[in-house]
Structure formats: C-alpha cells, structure tokens
Design brief:
- With 103 residues, the protein is mainly alpha-helical.
- It has one domain.
- Helices cover 89% and strands 0% of the residues.
- It is rod-shaped, with a radius of gyration of 29 Å.
Length: 103
C-alpha cells in the first residue's frame, strides 16, 4: 500500500465519519424541535380548552389572545387563576349557606 492510497482511504473514512456525525446532530436537533413544537401545541390546546370552558367558545378575539398566553410563566399563572376561580365559585355558595345557618 503506497502513501497516496493510504491518504485516500483516510480521507474517505473521515468524510464518512463527518457525514455520520452531521446526520446524528441533524436528527437530534430535529427531535428536539419536534418535541418543543409538540409541547407548544399541547399548551395551545390547553389554553384554548380553558377559554372554551370559561367563555363557552373561542372566537377570533379570544383566539388572538392564545399566543400571548403561551409565554413562559403565563400558562402557570393562567392555570392557577382558573383553578382558584373555580374554587372560589364553589366556595361562594357554601359560604352563603354557612352564613344563613349561623344567622
């Protein structure tokens, strides 16, 4: 085996290795982007469902509010506000019953 054929073999092996590494990195990036898009779509559906429950449907105006609500931290605030709103709605009738019985 002469020097030229050794160099060509080395060059081809490195080219193939570079292609393989590039492919792996591309697949990993694609999977991460897909997962992120999936999470965002799940959050979007969650917010839309909350708006449907709260307002009976999602019109164009409510639909335009969905994306701003998806900012980091907002979805947690929205969820907690929704939960506390439901809890308060359930407590109010109980509270009035308690006051009626105490009076």
């Amino acid at each position: 085996m002469n020097l030229e054929s050794t160099y060509l073999k080395w060059k081809e092996e490195n080219r193939l290795q570079g292609l393989q590494q590039g492919l792996q990195q591309g697949m990993q990036q694609g999977m991460q982007q897909g997962m992120q898009q999936g999470r965002l779509e799940g959050q979007r559906l969650f917010v839309e469902q909350m708006l449907k429950v709260r307002f009976g449907g999602v019109d164009d105006i409510l639909s335009s509010l969905v994306d701003p609500l998806l900012r980091p931290g907002r979805i947690i605030t929205l969820t907690l506000a929704s939960i506390s709103g439901r809890i308060i709605a359930q407590i109010k009738p109980l509270k009035s019953k308690i006051y009626c019985t105490l009076s």
